[in-house]
Amino acid sequence: MAEATANGLGQHALHAAHEAPAAGVAQAEVHQEHPIKLYLVVWAWLFILSACSYMVDYFGVHGYLRWSLILIFMMLKAGLIVAVFMHMAWERLALTYAIILPPVLVLVFVAMMVFEADYTLLTRLSFFGAGP
Amino acid sequence: MTETTLTHIGQTEPRPAGWQGIAADWSSDQRAFKNVSWGKAMMWIFLLSDTFVFGCFLLSYMTARMSTRVPWPNPSEVFALHIGGSNVPLILIAIMTFVLISSSGTMAMAVNFGYRRDRRKTAILMLLTAVLGATFVGMQAFEWTKLITEGVRPWGNPWGAAQFGSSFFMITGFHGTHVTIGVIFLVIVARKVWRGDYDTGRPGFFTSRKGHYENVEIMGLYWHFVDLVWVFIFAFFYLW
After folding, report:
1. Among residues 136-165 of chain B, which lie with CB inside 8 Å of chain A?
2. Best exposed site among A10, A41, B144, B199 by fewest CB in 10 Å?
3. Quick check: B235 and A9 CB within 8 A?
4. How far is the C-alpha of A39 from the C-alpha of B127, rounded, in Å?
């Protein structure tokens, strides 16, 4: 890292700068330091949400209620992990958007493949009839 | 990476709020991720690409499941375990989920103690994370063994659509590989923390660069990602 960015500084100056004002430099770097309690709370919530999504299967909930519950618990868990455990909530927006926005495009792919799968099923049904 | 901030002597200019701030950062002709070290930015970009890999796997599974006219095997019954005289649905998968979430929790604590320079606690928590990860892989190996003895193959299974086996082995296999690699790297980073490499500035084995406690956080990003992927696999493959 030093080699790449400290072009202007001689090796000497770099060393001096590195050793002496270590505290000042450390201040400039954004450390992700948060109270332990926050992690424990999120951890507990992840347990609760996982238990909830397991209960969906255990009690045999079916139909749209099942799918919406699964998706809600999944998104809540994913959000907690990314925001708190991976510290995305405290990163600069330029990074957050660069990472969070592209996966949204996967949804476009999902939509395309839903049409494609429906079409495949339709042709299979019309050529081979209903399942065995 | 303390050195990177030296070039601007730690001053990042105040930025406008919202989209204007994003545009200002990206168009400033220097570096887009101002206060983010390259190590962390690159890990995030790697994870983004990995997101697409797993996204494509889950998509192919969705397409296969939607387009087959043969009924899909019921995961709730396939992954049930016979405990105490009755079949408990998905119980092993639920335990695996809790194990992986716990490992994510210990990893988050390890990152925290790393920044507090508490070498002992950081290393112990990282090793605990590795143990939980190894437990997860062990349970997955048990599950694979169970399914293979029951006759599940990538090209067919006794209960329904043949694509069930291929999707299952590919998705869980790829995820298990990620966990295994994570365990190996956890042990390596934990050893460096334990030895005090990040305090003494000992050059790394491969890059011969000095490490920092941020490496623990970067390791943590990978580990949380593995947990994150499992959240989606659990929802889409096992529960759907």
Report:
1. none
2. A10
3. no
4. 18
Q: Dig out the tokens for A11 from the structure.
A: 């090796």
**Annotated domain spans of chain B:** 1-35, 37-239
Tell me the two tokens of residue B118: 């508490």
B14 reaches A (C-beta below 8 A) = no
Q: How far apart are alpha carbons A40 and A34 in whole angstroms?
A: 11
Residues B92, B165, B162: CA angle, nearest 5 degrees = 135
- B83: helix, coil or strand? strand
Q: Is B13 exposed, middle or buried (0-12, 13-18, 19+ CB in 10 A)?
A: exposed
Q: CA-CA-CA-CA torsion for B87, B89, B91, B92, nearest 10 degrees?
A: 90
Q: Measure the CA dihedral A26/A32/A37/A40, to 10°.
A: -140
| SS3 (DSSP) at A24 | helix
- Residue numbers in A near B62 (CB within 8 A): 110, 113-114, 117
**Is the separation of the CB atoms in B147 and A71 below 8 Å?**
no
B239 contacts B78 by C-beta, under 8 angstroms: no
Q: Which two tokens stand for residue A31?
A: 């450390």
Angle between helices A36-58 and B91-115 (to 10 degrees): 170
Spatial neighbors of A52 by CB under 8 A, at least 6 apart, are: A69, A73
How many A/B residue pairs have CB atoms within 8 Å? 202
Give the class (CATH, top level) of B37-239: mainly alpha
Provide the residue type at A61 as one letter. Answer: V
Residues of chain A with pLDDT under 50: 1-28
Please provide residue B87's backbone torsions phi and psi, each rounded to the nearest 5 degrees. -85, 120
* Structure ipTM over 0.90, yes or no: no
Give residue limits of the domains in chain A. Answer: 1-31, 34-90, 92-132
Looking up tokens 């390890």 gives B110
Give the other-Cβ count within 10 Å of A93's Cβ: 15
Tens digits of per-residue pLDDT, B95-123? 999 999 999 999 999 999 998 888 999 99
The number of CA neighbours under 13 Å toward the Cβ of A85 is: 33
pLDDT at B12: 61
